[in-house]
Structures are given as structure tokens and as C-alpha cells.
Write a structure and sequence with these properties.
The structure is a homodimer of 95-residue chains. Chain A is of the alpha+beta class. Chain A has a single domain, classed as Alpha-Beta Plaits. Chain A is built from three helices and four strands; from the N terminus they run βαββααβ. In chain A, strands 2-3-1-4 form a four-stranded antiparallel β-sheet. Chains A, B: Keywords: Monooxygenase, Oxidoreductase. Chains A, B: This is Antibiotic biosynthesis monooxygenase. Chains A, B: One of its GO terms (molecular function) is monooxygenase activity. Chains A, B: InterPro entries: ABM_dom, AI-2_Isomerase_LsrG, Dimeric_a/b-barrel.
Amino acid sequence: MEVRVIATLQAKPEFVSAVNDALHEIIEPSRQELGNLQYDLHRDLEQPGTFVFFERWASAEALEKHNATEHFKRFVSQIDGKLDLLDIKQLKKIA
Amino acid sequence: MEVRVIATLQAKPEFVSAVNDALHEIIEPSRQELGNLQYDLHRDLEQPGTFVFFERWASAEALEKHNATEHFKRFVSQIDGKLDLLDIKQLKKIA
């Protein structure tokens, strides 16, 4: 079953640039993972410093593998302490 | 410029079914709008009663037209008073 993830990250004002860099760095290696179907980064048009990932994974296992990769662990450490908000939703498309 | 929308709706426990029906009702007419590129409905796998739309619109004007349609106005009236949370983000894909 395809699993979709929407991850919302609101950077602290003083870390917007650092968070932006870390976000861009994780995109390519994530897209190259076997189970990744889509990995799009967005910025919020009304709230500067807020970024949103829309991700599609072939299965829950593929997402678990992603969360165990070196590039994901490095990303987590890079953004540690630099966010005012982090919301991660795991979703199933129903229509 | 393509505009993307992520709309998160958390139904009050007693209105999950009514909100679910209203959400499904607005999908087809929205997909038939000229400027709509994608209009996917999801449910949150970890939070029952939470639904998320992922929408892609050809332009800000297309989204404005959508918000003025009869089916959108009917949807707004159908969910009025039935939500614990409504969050609508307008996004631009940056990578």
C-alpha cells in the first residue's frame, strides 16, 4: 500500500537559510531510494520560513528504510534545534 | 505559476461521517474545473477523523475561481461547525 507523507517544518527566523540548505540536500538521495515515488519540497506562500514536503512511498517498509538512511539521519541532526514547528503526517489516499 | 494547496481538516468525533461525505462530494466537480491539475483526498493513518487534501492548480486565478464555485461554497456550508481544526496552506514547489 502506498504511503504518503506531508511534513511541515517551520524554521526559527535565524535558521531559515540553514534549514533551507538541509532540506535541499536530502532531496536527491531520497528520490534515488528504491521505494520513493515522489519527493517534492514546497515553501509556504503566506508564511515565510515554513517548508512542506509531499512524499509518496511504495510501502510502509520503504518509508521505514528511508528513516534509517544516513542522509535522513544527517538531515535530522542538521535541523535539530532550528525549528519552531515540525509536523509529520502519514497518509493514505482515499479518493 | 502552479499553486499547490494542502488543506488539513480534523472532524469533530460526532461529525466524522458527515465530513467524510462532504469531502467526497466536492472531489469530482473540483477535478473537472479547467485549472485543476490534481485533487487528492487522504486520511491520516495515525489520527482518525483527520483528512488532508493535496491540490494542484494551474494558477492563483484558477484557485480563486475554485473558491468561488457553487460546489466549494456548498462544501464550506456542509462542514461549518463540524471541525476541530482547519488548516489551509498555499504552497509553491521549490524542488
